[in-house]
Structure formats: structure tokens, C-alpha cells
Specification:
By secondary structure, the chain is an alpha/beta fold. Helices cover 41% and strands 18% of the residues. Helix 2 (41-51) packs parallel to helix 3 (72-82).
């Protein structure tokens, strides 16, 4: 499935971007709550209901490349409200256990995620991360930064050994993994409509064209 992250600041621009993404062929929408101006639980819940399309709700912490500036309690309270309406909640593996367990319990489905914008850990380290994530949630996710082309192959190596796992090698070097990963079982890939939410993200039209040729 192709998921388009919505990286907008307010209700009107989020709905406009969601409509544009759906019309472009997105299978899923990711609401990046952390990109919003002063998000609150009620506003986020209303947005999800009004988008009315399969949706991942994410409130990414600063430590993993997000923009949310409030407390951890505030960040997870918003996700708890979103869990009542969103199809999937994305929550980071490093989230405090108390908050993480609450999110998992309240959600219809979860992606447990790990992001490393500095490097690509070894196969063994990433397999350990994925195994931890899969014990906690429904889908595991890791996104890492390559320093050379060999690092991008680590991502594909890991994906070849696991199930229900989204694996991404970021940046220009890893760009190709966003369309190759589905061949290794990655259930979701992320593509942009206007604004990229991660380094190396392809636009939805390019992604769709590639996947139509090699996967679908």
C-alpha cells in the first residue's frame, strides 16, 4: 500500500492535502500531528473523522525527527484520542513503557517504529529492534540513514528475514528501497504529494508507476 504523509499546519490545509492525495491514488493517509500548529485531542479527532479515509495517526517525537514540542504526556494523550478513530497508530519503540502500553491497548492497529537519521545499524541490531517491535504491535517499522550503498542492502537483508515489517533506507542513496522494499514483503511504502516528510521520499506518481510495474 502507498501511504501519503500529510505534513500541514491546520484543518483546512490538512483536508485539502488529504483530498489531493486520495485523488492521486493513495491507499492510506498519514496524519503527521506533530506538524500541526498547537494540536489538541479534539481537533485531531475531528480531522480524522472528516478525512474519512484509511489513516495512520502519527505524533512524531523530536528525538526521532518529529516536530512535537509539548510534553510526552501531551503527545501521547493526543494519540490516545486519535486511536478512537484512526485505523493505525504509529508510536515509537523508545516511548516510555507506560505510555506505549496505553497506546497499544487503545488502538485498532499499531505500527511500532524506530528511526535513525545518523546511520544504518547492523543486520543483527535491526533484527533485534524489529523483534521487539513485533512483540508490542501489529507492524514493525524501521527507517535508517545509509552512508554507502552497502547500508541500503542491510535494510533489504533484514526485510528478507521478517514479516509485517516496513523497512526504509532514507536519503538519495536509499531512495530505491522505497519501491523495492515491497518485493521483500514491506506492507506499506511512503510517498509525498507536495511536501516530503523524510529524506529521499519519492512523489506518489513516481512511486505508483514503479509499483504498478514491479509489484501490482
Amino acid at each position: 500500500m502507498i501511504c501519503v504523509p500529510i505534513f500541514e499546519k491546520n484543518y483546512e490545509s490538512i483536508l485539502e492535502a488529504a483530498k489531493k492525495s486520495i485523488n492521486a491514488g493513495a491507499d492510506l493517509i498519514e496524519l503527521r500531528i506533530d506538524a500541526m500548529d498547537h494540536p489538541n485531542p479534539d481537533e485531531v479527532s475531528n480531522i480524522i473523522k472528516d478525512v474519512n479515509y484509511p489513516l495512520i495517526a502519527t505524533n512524531r517525537m523530536i528525538e526521532e525527527g518529529g516536530l512535537f514540542k509539548g510534553s510526552e504526556a501531551e503527545r501521547t494523550d493526543i494519540l490516545l484520542a486519535a486511536a478512537k478513530h484512526a485505523d493505525i497508530i504509529d508510536i515509537e519503540l523508545q516511548t516510555d513503557e507506560e505510555y506505549l502500553n496505553k497506546i497499544v491497548k487503545a488502538s485498532k492497529s499499531t505500527i511500532i517504529s524506530y528511526h535513525n537519521f545518523e546511520k544504518t545499524p547492523s543486520v543483527d541490531v535491526l533484527l533485534k529492534v524489529v523483534n521487539q517491535e513485533r512483540k508490542l504491535g501489529d507492524i514493525a517499522k524501521f527507517a535508517v540513514m545509509p552512508r554507502n550503498i552497502s547500508d541500503t542492502l542491510i535494510v533489504l537483508n533484514v526485510l528478507s528475514q521478517v514479516k509485517k515489517t516496513i523497512g526504509i533506507s532514507m536519503g538519495d542513496l536509499g531512495r530505491y528501497t522505497r519501491v523495492v522494499a515491497p518485493l521483500f514483503g514491506s506492507p506499506i511504502t511512503f510517498a509525498s504529494i507536495d511536501t516530503i516528510s523524510a529524506p529521499g521520499q519519492l512523489d506518489i506518481h513516481t512511486t505508483k508507476n514503479f509499483l504498478d510495474k514491479i509489484v501490482r
